[in-house]
Amino acid sequence: MLKVNSKKAIRRLSNRSFKSNVSRNVIAVIAIALTAILFTALFTVGSGMIENIQRQTMRQAGGGGMAYLKYITDEQYNDIKDHPLIDRISYSRMICDEVISDKLLKRHAEIYYMNDVGMELGFCVPTHGRNPEKENEIIMDTRAMKMLGLPEEVGASVTFQMKIHDGEIVEREFVLSGWWEADPTFDMASIMVVSKAYIDAHIDELYNSFRENYEYTGVINSYVMFKNSFGLESKLERIITESGYSMDENAPNFVESNVNWSYLSSNFSLDLPTVAAVIAAIALIIFTGYLIIYNIFQISVIKDIRFYGLLKTIGTTGKQVKKIIRRQALILSCIGIPIGLIAGYFIGTAIVPLIMNQSSFAGAVFTTSANPLIFVGSTIFALVTVAISTSKPGRIAASVSPVEAVRYTDNTNTKKKNRKSRGGAKISGMAAANLGRNKKRTILVVISMSLSLVMFNTIYTMSLGFDMDKFLSTFVETDYLVSHASLGNYTYAGDEDTVTESMISAIEEQSGFKEGGRFFANIRDAETFRILPGGRNTNYIRVNRDDKGNAFCAVYGLEDFPLGNLNVLEGEIDYEKLKTGKYILEGVHTDDNRNPINETSHYDIGDTVTLYNNRGNGETMADNEYTEYSYEVMAKVEVNTFTNSCRVGYDYSYYLPAEVYKTMVVNPGTMMYVYDVEEGTEPAMDAFLQNYTENIEPVMAYSSKQTKANEFKGMQNMVLIVGGVLSLIIGLIGVLNFINSMLTSILTRKREFAMLQSIGMTTLQLKKMLIAEGLMYTASAGAVSLVFGVGVSALLANTVAKSLWFFTYQFTLLPLIITIPILLIIGIVLPMPVLKTVEKQSIVDRLRENEN
Predict the structure, then answer these.
(1) Using CB atoms within 10 A as the burial measure, which of 56, 455, 560, 660 is most buried?
(2) What 3-state DSSP class applies to 158?
(3) Which SS3 state, helix, strand or coil, does residue 205 take?
(4) Of 680, 706, 732, which marks where a domain is finished?
(5) Is the same domain home to 640 and 526?
(6) pTM for the full model?
(7) Long-range contacts of 248-252, Cβ-Cβ distance < 8 Å, separation of 24 or more
């Protein structure tokens, strides 16, 4: 068989056919660009969120190392640091247990010596000035400088009192040699760094005694960097065990360590729901793009079927016809995909800050790197979508014979039924019959339009399902919570850090005050409580024990208002019996869904609990009188970290009426004061508290329900914005598909319309028929959306409810009720301008158009 080199001819035919389909090309480029936008935006948002979350969680975790060696000695550091798996290792030595300063009560401070690796991984590299070199030089962040009243200038002096071993307090004066900008997302602590010269000068007080008394002065913490972040647990185990140490906490050579949880590769698992979600998102975009691109090329092939038939008569093979169509699709992809990549990347980079600013990282600077994989992946998936979408139209064009091509119509029905009508042909019946010519195309258009409506309704349902009451109950059960600043700093220490009576009196005098009550707790002071052995789960937490091995416990005394707000998990509270002093409430921790964590429950209802403390006015426990208290467990209540606890993870927690608690301690510490206000008075109360805590008693702090409510609304808005953008793009694709279908349907039926008009159909009747077709399209899409919108929303909501503890499904069709009338208007308006274009040709010209 003689082979003919027909590449040039095929290219020329493809190019000329391409140029003759301008309207199709424009719509196809837009469709391909939108498909690429969806892929690029999805990958950009995913990549950007991973990048920014990892960066910010590194800051929250305290550093950017992959693994962490904790409380080690110089000897252990030297034995481990040269292990071949280690790429870099930091040296960070704690200078003291506590920095004592009235100015830093609202911000915990820690002082270290760090080597260069430590400062880099600890985000402590000065952006102004230089690293500390002399014994008295120090660097810190701008937030600590502001609280200390230090000017932003090298040479500023500051004096600290520092608690070192055995409670000894030393006073040291430092000079500022540099500083860096404070991270707004990590507001819990400030890290300060001194020089190596300081270590050398005070080496005698910087010994490590952590294993004996849990004191932090002198301990070394080291961040470890490996060459990559895969298999961090096994690498960490190897560097410890192969250096002669153990990960068994009961071993004498135990080295405490952990993997940095900010490295997603160390805690990310490809569980079935995650994989399914990713696959579903990609499949949805491919399907969305397929709906329009397939339809565009299907209609184009049908329109040009006679052209392909004529090519067959002159010897063009089916393979060559497919090449012509593939070439056109490739040209359109070369135009549409780059547009989509650029637009999608910028849309994605705009969405990332919207999402991140509604998270706990709000206020930070977010950047999204232009990762080449974003563009490579988006291009591949877009090309795959185009290839899938054009394959069947190509097969249709390639398989049609010259004779079939001349007779080919848009009617896919092979069986014809004779229709009888007594009233003659009705406009609505003719419109329905026209849609039935190509049922597959009609179905695809309806699905394409319905998809965005279903998605938008689902997204709105998700946003509506965010239950503010559930969310707020985790953080603020009352309108306001007032405390000493040390509580938010996780350093509350009993009667030393109490809410002042002067502040409580000022609050109760405010207009709108409704009801309030005190929380008493003596934690970390001379009257702190311990518990005698008994119950179950006694080894759940191995620290927080006294010299007898008995666990320290958190015992709270509550006035009536907060006592009535406790969430009962098991049993019932008889408040009168509880106040007799014979009964106690056991606190049990819960997970995100407020389900009890059984390991934190130690007694059954009716069991006896024996507590003890050293009661008295002495400065130390030894100065006070040993006293025991026995109670019967009446009920179990929820320990809420933010609303009814000291915010430190005590394994044992108990709640008593305030009047009973006051008999157990001489100096009850008011840990919190909680209260409600009259509706509408919150702005005035917020203004009062802000002024009071900033200007009158700066050591006091507060949180409000409204603050948390604003955070919650921000999260809702983020879902609506991101989901709305995605729905808008998919909706635009659906409308484009509808426009393309109507446009092509009208243009390919010009001769048919001319025939109808030649036998008496008026222009008004023709308009009515086209409007009826448009309304049937949109009405069908609306009906499908209503049916599937309810089902999909309920199914997805059930899935989300299992993973989001603050989600409660609420049925709604509001988005569909609003958007369906808009679609109906489009169905009415769209056919008019197209028909006007068609009618510019006379009936005779349109009848003659396909004669040749």
Answers:
(1) 455
(2) strand
(3) helix
(4) 706
(5) yes
(6) 0.58
(7) 249/542
